[in-house]
Design brief:
7-stranded mixed β-sheet; 265 residues; 7 helices; globular; alpha/beta
């Protein structure tokens, strides 16, 4: 499984990166499948550096804050108003129960039909796996001040040239403070893509919103995650400080997500 960081800026786009959007690519033995985890503001332009919009197989939303979902409005325009015609099926979109209504409201559309002509909206069921192409995506309840927020566990079963099978696991935190659902999502993950929007000594008294680097590291340790990739770092934070915090509580490999960089999971 290949992870490409389309956008990783925390809470709003920064000068070097759009807001949250992560491209996952995996092959089922017949073709490459491409899915997006979140599609935050500013991400739709950047994602076109890596694929044609028609090649988006599905979008999986962690929650409905604009920095994680709002460029779905732009994708709606690209689909609905393409003068050459979209010539593809509706794009599947998994998300919280209010996703279809929220997107319609954001664009000033009547909720019926809203964007349902362009998107096949599906609603997350907590801890119920979704099988899609080579991907199995399971949502776990996260701790963030919205009606529904999820950490996503993405599993891909791959077969090498010798016929040996291996399951690769990426855990994505979405936005959350430390909680059991996050730890369950990250259990034994090969890569734990985890937000760390807060700093110790400045924000650590705030509960139920975001993680600090230290909190992220503690969850990675408890979950036995193999690698920790810190993301959703706002422009006013120092990533070096965030990494140092994570290393206080996690002894494995720690890195910071960078827009435009790809990783093998």
């Amino acid at each position: 499984m290949k992870l490409t960081i389309v956008g990783c800026s925390g809470s709003f786009p920064g000068p070097q990166s759009p807001a949250s959007c992560y491209l996952l690519t995996a092959n089922d033995g017949e073709r490459d499948w491409k899915i997006l985890l979140d599609l935050g503001n500013g991400a739709l332009g950047a994602v076109q550096r890596y694929l044609d919009l028609r090649d988006i197989d599905a979008v999986f939303l962690s929650h409905l804050h604009p920095d994680h979902c709002m460029d779905l409005c732009g994708l709606h325009v690209a689909i609905h108003w393409d003068p050459n015609g979209w010539n593809r099926p509706r794009v599947p979109v998994w998300g919280p129960a209010d996703t279809a209504h929220r997107m319609a409201t954001a664009y000033g559309l009547d909720p019926d039909p809203g964007m349902t002509e362009d998107f096949d909206f599906q609603v997350w069921q907590r801890e119920k796996p979704v099988e899609f192409g080579p991907f199995t995506v399971t949502p776990f309840a996260a701790l963030h001040p919205v009606d529904e927020a999820y950490a996503l566990r993405v599993e891909v079963r791959e077969v090498d040239a010798s016929g040996n099978s291996h399951t690769s696991v990426l855990a994505y935190s979405g936005d959350t403070d430390a909680c059991q659902g996050l730890q369950d999502a990250a259990r034994d993950a090969d890569v734990f893509l985890c937000e760390a929007a807060f700093h110790e000594g400045r924000d650590d008294a705030v509960a139920g919103v975001h993680l600090t680097g230290k909190r992220a590291g503690a969850v990675a340790t408890a979950a036995n995650a193999q690698r920790l990739l810190l993301t959703h770092i706002p422009v006013w934070n120092d990533a070096v400080v965030t990494v140092a915090e994570a290393q206080e509580s996690y002894g494995g490999e720690v890195a910071v997500a960078v827009a435009g960089v790809s990783y093998h999971v």
